[in-house]
């Protein structure tokens, strides 16, 4: 399964992701967006990612391609560097290789679920802020997510403006410096 990443609106992706990530999860340019696949690619400088300067990198992990596209575009237009993946396995691989400060995380994804990704993030990268966004929400799920380290929880469908507002609020209330 593959997903794509919105890099056209300002992330210094080369500085954040060493060439290792290009080989491990196969990042390729497709027009103004980037394509991430689980198939490694050979060293190919024709798909080099431009050097852009934005500070906050958001990893958007969801198996809904339409949500990845819509929310990824909106976050990019809001000035964030956005990396998108469609399963938990890709999310963990990306977190290991890229400097991510924020993750928007679906709980039900193929290969590795969001609960496992959340546990990995909080164990390995406790300073990364997490917004859980799921279609399978309940009060018990929200409480469990917060107890396991999520900064906030939203049910799907959520208005894109509400998601952007929540991301901004979490980032602005954070007193911890951003580095993973």
Q: Indicate the low-confidence ranges by residue numbers.
A: 1-10, 12-54
Radius of gyration over all CA atoms, rounded: 15 Å
Q: How are strands sequenced across the largest beta sheet?
A: 5-4-6-7-8
Secondary-structure-derived class: alpha/beta
The dominant shape is globular
Number of helices: 7
Question: Under the CATH scheme, which architecture would be assigned?
Answer: 3-Layer(aba) Sandwich
What can you see in these coordinates?
The protein is of the alpha/beta class and 180 residues long. The chain has a single domain, classed as Response regulator (Rossmann fold), CATH 3.40.50. The chain has helices at 13-16, 19-25, 65-77, 88-97, 114-124, 139-147, 160-173; strands at residues 3-5, 27-30, 33-36, 57-61, 81-85, 102-105, 129-134, 152-155. Helix 2 packs antiparallel against helix 4 (88-97) and helix 4 runs parallel beside helix 5. The longest helix has 14 residues, at 160-173. The two termini are 26 Å apart.
Brief summary of the model shown:
With 180 residues, the protein is α/β, with parallel strands linked by helices. It is 38% helix and 19% strand.
Blueprint of the fold:
Blueprint: E1 3-5, H1 13-16, H2 19-25, E2 27-30, E3 33-36, E4 57-61, H3 65-77, E5 81-85, H4 88-97, E6 102-105, H5 114-124, E7 129-134, H6 139-147, E8 152-155, H7 160-173
Parallel strand pairs: 4-5, 4-6, 6-7, 7-8
Antiparallel strand pairs: 1-3, 2-3
Helix pairs in contact: 2-4, 4-5
């Amino acid at each position: 399964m593959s997903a794509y990443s919105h890099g056209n609106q300002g992330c210094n992706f080369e500085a954040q992701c060493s060439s290792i990530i290009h080989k491990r999860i196969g990042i390729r340019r497709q027009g103004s967006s980037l394509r991430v696949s689980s198939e490694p690619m050979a060293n190919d400088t024709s798909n080099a990612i431009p050097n852009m300067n934005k500070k906050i990198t958001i990893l958007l992990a969801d198996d809904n391609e339409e949500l990845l596209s819509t929310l990824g575009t909106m976050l990019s237009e809001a000035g964030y560097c956005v990396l998108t993946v469609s399963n938990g396995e890709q999310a963990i691989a990306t977190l290991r290789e890229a400097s991510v400060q924020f993750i928007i995380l679906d709980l039900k994804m193929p290969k590795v679920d969001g609960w496992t990704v959340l546990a990995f993030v909080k164990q390995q990268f406790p300073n990364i802020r997490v917004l859980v966004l799921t279609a399978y929400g309940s009060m018990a799920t929200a409480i469990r997510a917060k107890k396991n380290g999520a900064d906030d929880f939203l049910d799907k469908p959520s208005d894109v403006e509400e998601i952007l507002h929540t991301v901004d609020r979490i980032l602005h209330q954070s007193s911890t410096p951003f580095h993973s």
